Amino acid sequence: MNAVYLAQDPTLADFGKDPWWLVLIKVAFAFVFAVLATLLGVWFERRVVGYMQVRPGPNQVGPMGLLQTLADGLKMAFKEDILPRAADKVVYFFAPTISVICAVTALSVVPFGPMVSIFGHWTPLQVTDVSVAVLVLLACSSMGIYGIVLGGWASGSTYPLLGGLRSSAQMISYEVAMGLSIVAVFMTAGTMSTSGIVAKQGDATQLSLFGTQIPAPGWYAILLLPSFVIFFIATVGETNRAPFDLPEAESELVAGFMTEYSSLKFALFMLSEYVSMVTMSAVTTTLFLGGWRAPWPITLWEGANSGWWPMIWFFGKVIALVFVFVWLRGTLPRLRYDQFMRFGWKVLLPINLVWILVLSGLRSIEDWDTQGKLIAVGVPAGALLLLTLLWPSRKPQPKETVQEQVNNRPHGSFPLPPMDLQVPPSPRTRRVVAEREPANVTAGSESREV
Amino acid sequence: MTTQTVLAAAGGVSGGEEVTFWILAPLALIGAIGTVAARNAVHSALWLVLSMLCLGVFYVLQAGPFIGMVQIIVYTGAIMMLFLFVLMLVGRDASDSLIETLRGQRTAAILLGLGFAGLVGGGIYRALEGTTAAGLTQANAEGNVQGIARLLFTKYVFAFELTSALLITAAVGAMVLAHIERRKQDKMDQIATMKARFRPGNYPGPKPGPGVFATSSSVATPARLPDGRLTERSTPDILPVRELTAQETSLKGTEK
Question: Domain of life here (chain B) (predicted)?
Answer without folding.
Answer: Bacteria
